User: Fold this.
Amino acid sequence: MSGTWRRGRLRGLAPVLATVVVVGTSAAAAQAGAASPDHRTGVTSADPSCVLSQPGSEIKHVIYLQFDNVHFTRDNPNVPSDLEQMPNLLNFLTGNGVLDDNHHTPLIAHTANDILTSLTGLYGSDQGQPVANSYRYYNPNGTTNSAASFAYWTDGVADSSTPTPSDTTPTMVTPAGKNTPAPWVGYTRSGCDFGSVATANTVLENTNIDIPKVFGANSPEVAELKANPNLAYADFLGVGVHCATDSTLCADSPNAKADALPDEPGGYTGYQGLFGAKYTNPAISPNGPVTEVDGKTPIIDPYTGINGFPGFDGMSAAVSLGYVAQMQEAGVPVTYAYISDAHDNHATGSAFGPGEAGYVAQLKSYDTAFGQFFTRLAKDGIDKSNTLFVVTSDENDHFAGGKPSPANCDGVTVACTYSQIGEVNANIRGLLATQQNTTTPFGVHADSAPNYYITGNPAQADATTRAFEKSVAAVTATDPYTGTNGPIASYMADQTEMNILHMVTGDPLRTPTVTEFANPDYYVYSGAANCNSPCVQAEAAFAWNHGDFSPDVNTTWLGLVGPSVKHLGVTNAVWSDHTDIRPTMMALLGLHDDYSYDGVPLIGFLKAEALPHSVRDDRKQYEALAAAYKQLNASVGQFAAATLQFATAGIESTSPGDTTYQQTDAVLAALGQQRDALAAQINAAINVPFFGPEPSVSHAATPNGIQGTGLVSLTAAANALISRA
Assistant:
């Protein structure tokens, strides 16, 4: 995504499924999928003690790739989707493993929250960033400041407006107020180096905060930052390696620094890391510059001209995959990478519509990069026989724009153009003042799912809060793409409902007063307290909206290839979300983390040898229980959808004494408590056989009065509670 924090990272419910039409051939993907062990060239871990797989598995490498806003379903029925225009990737996934097109986001569905949820297996409530890519926090005087979601894993509140934020909790915060456990620890404790390529918060993200933290306030790196900020950005941000304790990669580098995780469960001492291209590049590419995936083109930072980090918005497939391949070839067996959005024109800062010439060309370059990637890996002996490939996208952005011209354009043979394109910007402050005569002071995290923070932080049932919520819900506008006038808000969530949606963190200062889920064409922000300039107008620079509670935004995809992964091709048989990625990977690898996941292993995608014996014996019942659990607990599952609709009706109610709202809130609070208790039981029943330890068997009643914790009883209890909601 391009733009500001609202879009992504800068320098300084079921979809309608289109028929898959493969645009082109995929010889490279087929070659990588079919490569045999005889093709291996002996690429090994820089740490020979690395253990990645459970007994009987052949996994020696892990490659995790997360796109920003890349779609499997079509945004225009005539235009092949993003993945259809990348057949080298699509055919590799579908020809060798599984592509789950029934995969979903958390809330709000935004780049930072989605990626961090995928990395940890934790919803934003448990990792600290449900409101992203920035959030607000309350100061002692009742005002709010804005902070960035993208910050290094151990950073405090990343507020560029002050060196001393009044909120002292970590950016990544647990419900107990501690720093969220880091996703590389499960690997490094098993002796495996973990390489990160622009992956959210696992690398240094902000120069002024992160460089002094990692290198020291009086370090040469800080001196470089003061003398040349652009050089320091290219040298120290965006890429890195977290090393195992006996890794030769860090041991052989004079520039390795302590990898400090003070709150890590069980402690984390004696570990080091390489931070930034200046120190990572020589370690992984000692004989020349790190190149794009073609192996020829040096990766160049456009601001300095050096072989450094080109910026988070510059992580095209060629760049990110080049770094991944180089790390793997240098013996880093676990590599995670972020790939920039293909929908934006990164040269001009504008957006492409589906099928526009630049959009098609950009996707073609991505497809070429994946062809080169799989060919290069196959020559290294890194293929489906010994590597776990995990590929996904953060969210499935909603296209805000008119109809294309010509009407039958497909983008590939006939380019599309758009006379109307761009999100519909709505100045909520001006609209509230002019339409509702509401001038209550507030701050807002601008988004298609705007989060409001009323000044003074009044209670949820306070008269000021209730009047404000009803005013927001009543604001109307005319959507230029449909020509209809109606409410901007589709749904409203107060703090009780936000808790059900996993949006309330361990930091009470960052909990919004209320969240609006708008019509996905709209981007809601706070401007002037009048509409002398239009309060509603299309903004052509941005055409892809996210954050919302909307099927086209919340449904994305997940690809898995590797040993013990079933070969299913495209399937929607398993309903999953981003929390399930981490436990599925750890189950396949025979590894574990020192915390409980919100997600569960995707049993339906795993071969029998990857399952504990108890799960194999009752596989169908475990799968049924997992399916019920997802609909009960997921941010966009059936339970969440029902309660959000109920919460919206309560918030908008105008009964005498506000009794309807009070009754609605009481029902939602009770449902939320019952959901949390039952979800915890189900979560343990599914995850304990994979990760242990075995709990004592309980015969207490479930929240619905069903005795026992058997799989069938828990499934029935979950379905009953969903029905009640």
